Amino acid sequence: MATEATQGRLLLESGEFARAADVAEKIYTASQSRLVIMRLLRHRLAIVGMVVLILFYMTAILAPFLAPNDPYRYFDEYLYATPQLPRFRDDEVSSWRPFYYALERKRDPQTLKMTYQYNTAQRLYVLFFARGFPYKLFGVIPTDIHLISGQEGAPLFLFGTDALGRDLFARNIYATRISLTVGLVGVALTFVLGCTLGGLSGYYGGTVDMVIQRIIEFLMSIPMLPLWMALSAALPREWSQLQIYFAITIILAIAGWTGLARVVRGKLISLRNSDYVTAAVLSGVTDGKIILRHLLPGFASYLIVHVTLAIPGMILGETALSYLGLGLQPPSISWGVLLSDAQNVKSIAVYPWIMLPGLFVIAVVLAFNFLGDGLRDAADPYKED
Amino acid sequence: MTQYIARRLTFMVVSLFAISFVAFVIIELPPGDYLTLYINQLTIRGERVDEARIESLKAEYGYGQPFMVRYYKWISGIVLRGDFGRSLQWREPVSVLIMRRLPVTVLISTMTIIFTYLVAIPIGIYSATHQYSITDYIVMMFGFIGLATPSFLLAMFLMYYLYTQFGVPPGGLFSDQYRDAAWSLGKVIDLGKHLIVPIMVTGMAGTAGGIRGLRATLLDELWMDYVETARVKGLSETRLVLKYPVRVALNPMFSTVGHVLPAIVSGATIVDVVLNLPTVGPLLLGSLRSQDMYLAGSLVFILTFLTLVGVFISDIVLVIADPRIRYE
Hints:
The complex is a heterodimer. Chain A is of the alpha+beta class. Helices cover 58% and strands 13% of the residues of chain A. In chain A, the strands form two sheets. In chain A, strands 1-2-3 form a three-stranded antiparallel sheet, with no helix packed on it. A two-stranded antiparallel sheet of chain A has the order 4-5. Chain A is globular and about 85 Å long. In chain B, a hairpin with a 4-residue loop joins strand 1 (86-87) and strand 2 (92-93). The radius of gyration of chain B is 25 Å and the shape is globular. The two termini of chain B are 12 Å apart. Chain B contains 15 helices and two strands. The chains are: A alpha+beta, B mainly alpha.
């Protein structure tokens, strides 16, 4: 991707000085945010991360439309059904329309365990925009159209089914809703905590600073997972799904704010003695307003970087807790909840597709890290590289 | 020096006090109280529970008295008599249960820290001195993925791989023939073999982070004037790099032990659950699931206690190794 800066350099080298000057002026007069965006777009991995995240969040919004089956429905004839991958051709048929094979149940005569085999004689075409279970698009528009679905009487399970015969593709898609928002809600909390406590610490200094710094040091030097586990295990059993969800984000935020508070404090200490702050104090502006209006915007880009890099930690925390059975509980669906079925090595070995949510977790965390790294480089667009 | 150690020591003691308080809150959080459950359990087992026994139990646990009194009874029991209370689920004193599993837990965490540095340092140096080489790119890619993959998922994937390839469910510390055998060289080697997977899995994120950090600081250091000077004077490249910039670059790495150790303890807790090792991790999970709160609270307390002591020791070692840290 040729950005204005590289374009300018190329023009200079090829002797087109007039146009090079044009481009140079465009950079010179560009606003701060424009420069940040230009810099970010040059970071290829950050773009990849951003695209992946957009896709994931779109999935979360459009979950019911993308899911071929109701994620809560028990297909009791298909327990632990094998994933059916749609295909365009096999030995006999080649088609532009994707098709899948119907599943045939067989009971193993020795172990009496149910196994599923593809019936390669029975090719079924994948239906697009067909009618299925009813839902409300964006929570308002009632409809029953789904992007893909299987034929009547032969449901399509892209990722197979779980022990109770529920469609794992649909469940993985629905899981994005909780797994991806836990990070956002948690980070919003850490943001408030981190800015407030870091702000107090940096702006006032003295005893306040000392106490807050010791608290941060304390929180940073204790292993968080055992504490998280204990706190989430102590949540009242009778709480609703929503209450548990918010309680978990609060528990995760307890540890998350410390890093941000340190960033805020460091920046405030370096900025609080600058002339424009003194001017604001002399004009009688209140402390809170100085911090919020004059100091925080000065390093907002660093805050955004920090927040982006803090989200994956939250997602991993929720996944770990739910995996252990201490976080969100069924009927909530998150990747961690889905993974909690994958604790037994014997069932993983026979039904490896129950590990799939793990790959999505890794993909999302990687995407956030790539984007965060790109943002970090872009946060200071005047820095030479 | 003495002042620094005194300051760290004070911080550790205050932290311990804070975490003991948190641990006691955890013990008291679930609805229903320990004593009622304990008496129920005794009755179910058919033991006669007379009034005098109930009264003495009530006095022992400070039943019906204010929170601070109960807390004092609990903490003084630990400090003065090493008494952590009783586990309802296991019907044993908590201290006995913990001591049975603690040595292995400490062993794994210590080995993991050593592993992290043994692997991260050479790779980090190589990666920085061979910047933009294919190896460097591979290492950076590993760094990214290593940091993004939660250790328990890696443990799960590895377990799947090992099980489907070799057909043995991983887990445990010893092979069958050594389980009840006396300690011998063979048993130690067997233990080592079983520990490789948990140590690698638990240490992965720390290793990846260490490599990235070392590489970044070393890259800044490699083109400093003092390095150029030594190079111009004809010092061999290997000696030059190892003698000066690497030593500078290692400092920030060692001074982050305080952050690496808590992460390793956290990671080991869940990895050991996945790999089914007899450490305190699975014990903690089990106690939380069955609301065995004296055990759970004590485990949180002990794990944090050990981490704080570990961080304290590393602080002292650091200040001896690098006197500049004192002034930070």
